[in-house]
Amino acid sequence: MTAPFRSSIMTVRPEWIDYNGHLNMAYYNVLFDQCADQVYERIGFGPDYHQTTGNTTYVAEFHLAYVRELHVNDQVTVTFQLIDFDAKRFHSYQEIWHQDGWLAATGEALTLHVDQSGPKVAPMPDDVLNKVRTLADEHSSLPRPSAVGARIGIRRK
To answer: In which element (H, E) is residue 129 found?
Structure first.
């Protein structure tokens, strides 16, 4: 896996465009989520994970910053960087990049590993945790993005 992970190319669909003529805010999340799905398959949270283990992941918190508008048929890739993790959760940072090389949005998530029999937050199985650890090792030499942990609010002088 490359560091940071980069998704396959995704195209902004016409049905995702809002009345302002650009990508609706909800679909930025779809792009981030589709990238996460690609990472998940590599670390063991693929489509059959819930059926075989009774476990899944829930995003507990997600912060999105819009940097530049996307429009219909724009092609993008999304990056995924693991910032931190423990046995029950992980902190990730993502960026949406336009094919022309400019940043469109950033996203930051805190994700929980959940045993759905509760549901309750629970430790990841060892094989998955080892893959998450491997991803963390691959990303450990990357600089911490300046947008990680950004606060929201009205700045007063």
So the answer is: helix 126-139
